[in-house]
Hints:
The chain is an alpha+beta fold. 38% of the residues lie in helices and 21% in strands. Helix 4 (106-119) runs parallel beside helix 5 (135-143).
Amino acid sequence: NRFLTEAPWDAEALNEARIDWHQKDPSTRFSERGVIAIDNALIDHYGQKIEDAGYFWDHVEVRYKIALDYVFANYVCTTGKHYPLYLRRFKKEVQCQEDDEEFINHTELTIELVDQVCEREIPGTFTWDSFFTNARTMNHVHGKKDAQGHRRAYVGDLNWKGVEQKISEVAASIPIEDRKEIRRGDKRQWYFTATLKIPKVNHKVRVVILWDQRRDKEPRKILITNRTNWEVQRILWVYRDRWTGTETYHRDGKQELGMGDCQLRDGQGQTRHMYLVMMAYSLLTSQLKQARARDWALCKLTTIGEASRAMLRESLRQTLAWAVDQIVNRSRKHKEVLMQLGLA
């Protein structure tokens, strides 16, 4: 606890060093075809006295729960490997009023993450789900430029109140013969695309409407992007990486790396804990999809779960080997060994 709350170390400097470390490996290095996925995650907690914790509605579990709400920017490489970049913690408006602080909503937190990514000149296309699709975010990203002077690209899920309803009505009226086939492996879908202007957005956008079946009335998904010249396949490819870069990180972080295990009330301690989880995730990511199995892993690792379990087995093996050596070869009493291991 003291290491997280009192020790003098810079969590943000550690995070920047972690990101720099990824650039040394070709499989996790930034590229123009990379994807920057933005999403939020509710991290369960037990106490309401934890700084910034509150009741939030979880649409997956369909219930209210006490949690911290984090917004993450994650990077998805062309190799399929992915890792978190930056984070922001959301604080509810009523809590800000009680603490006499300025309230910052999810949109403004997203803008902060976009600015941080752009200041570091991290290449790639931004993507997010419908919760983050709005004119403010789209206009802000479109106004940013990369190192070559090109406008930054985004692909979002369009579920924007009012706009989505109008486009859904248009989708239902699109003749079947105008819906084109698109394949991904054995999976087949149908699409219609058009470039248009929508209210409050200061640039032209391209909308892609997807149906599972050609004769369906309701579309499966409506995507929006400022890249009006991109092929539909590329737009879909970018958006699919949103799930890869966010949902899998949230799942593995919670299930394997103790993302929600820190119950400190101190906000700095919570933030530092999250940065350490991000560090652990990066270290495990570096061990995935290697050309050959690591000596300690015994098999080629393909998922964070496999890597976590392999690390646990290796730690247990080394601990048992050390204990046996201490007792058999160094003639130490077993109680002394247990005490040194903190088990007595």
